[in-house]
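Question thread 4412

I'm putting together a teaching handout and wanted feedback from people who do this every day. The idea is simple: show students a protein as raw sequence, then show them the structure tokens that encode its fold, then repeat with a second protein so they can compare. Below is the first pair exactly as I plan to print it.
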Amino acid sequence: MNPLPVAPGTWRYAAPPLLLALPALVVAFPVGVGLLVLTVAVVAFFRDPERTPPASGIVAPAHGKVSVIREEGEQVRVGVFMNVTDVHVIRAPTDGYAESVERRPGAYKPAFSKDSDRNERVDVDFGTHEVSFIAGWFARRIHPYISGGESVARGERLGHIAFGSRADILLPEWVDVEDVEVEKGQRVTAGQTVVVETPTAAD
């Protein structure tokens, strides 16, 4: 658990305006206030609140608006677009063992556009499913917290994207598009909103 409810590396972005604000408050008060506001905005952007997963189900990987629901071969992809006010910490949709964590270079198109599929990304392959961190036009820093060979629990933090974009889950093959319980345009919460209910032994 983080000692502060912010993502790792927050102060890399928040410290410069804070340090500049202190002398600016003396020599140029409005500028100093502006820098303090910027510092608060950066810290708020990197906030990392605790999440409690529900009792069952595959949960949303990100906090934001569902922007993609589509079939890809034998699997279904669900993507969540994060705007500047959303939490940008990505969480594990279900328990899994990361077989690989691969960074793929690409473009920096707006994350809500179809062209964002070709953006820079990090794919975390869990074998049965995959989670992708996709950069946007402004987001140029993807920070995975795990490496290949690590196991994670549902709702656990997988990483964050500095200044935004999109997170996808390529669902297990047993999931049909009709099984998806969210809709395009729906707001979801990382680690809490159920995307697909998992079958029980009685099903």
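The second pair follows. I'd like the answer to focus on this one:
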Amino acid sequence: MKAWLLEQYDQPLSFEEVPEPEINEPTDVIVKIGGAGVCRTDLHLIEGIWAETLGTPLPFTIGHENAGWVHEIGPNVTEFNVGDPVIVHPVASCGKCLSCRAGEDMHCENMKFMGLTHNGGYAEYMKTSERALIKLDDGVNPADVAPLADAGITAYRAVKKAAPLAKPGKKVLMIGMGGLGHIGVQLMREFGNADIIALDMNKERLDMALEYGADKGILGGDDAISEVRKLSEDKGVETIIDLVGTDQTHADSMKMLRKGGNYFGFFAI
């Protein structure tokens, strides 16, 4: 099969012929890739930022936002059949450790992170586990939803934590209307009841956020902090979800957050 390999850090990926993955464990599933998203983490992997942290031997296939169709299943797979359209969680977790039993699969003690520690989805086929799959509804094109495998669940987790605080009459500031932000706005519109303020440096992204459910859009710049504070009677907003996660957005958030407010921050990597 063909795959895009990371052979050297800080160099373009190489398009090569590699062996197809094989079933080794009873719950293994091989997925025919129908779509693979490009995440900032993928770009950082190419740059070698995580080379020492991960220690993943080169070459390997990156790509952790994947969707496609079940191609082959292990003998103990019961929930999926060959041909089923699926979206793939990045982590193939064991389901047995304390973290998995607590529903914190991202902290699995035996995790296999496709595209980071194991071969990912920039290929024709990828091996994962039954536990990592979610069946797609009929008519859903895997290529259309592949980025939800990471960008979608990342925004979902943050919004689910913040939504109980997003009560009527309160304000939620969401910083960064890129791949995570526009998904986050839609989720907050569904799960929360507060007014949503979107903040971004790009007007086109702000317009999209307003279309998807934000109540107010503020263009980033020298006046952004004062504009946010004006909307909250100069007291600051009750909740901030910072989807950018730089030192600057962390610092600015503290100037826009109400005393006793809640800050949900990401960390840029």
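Top answer:
Good format. For the second protein you could add a caption like this: The chain has a mean pLDDT of 94. The radius of gyration is 20 Å.
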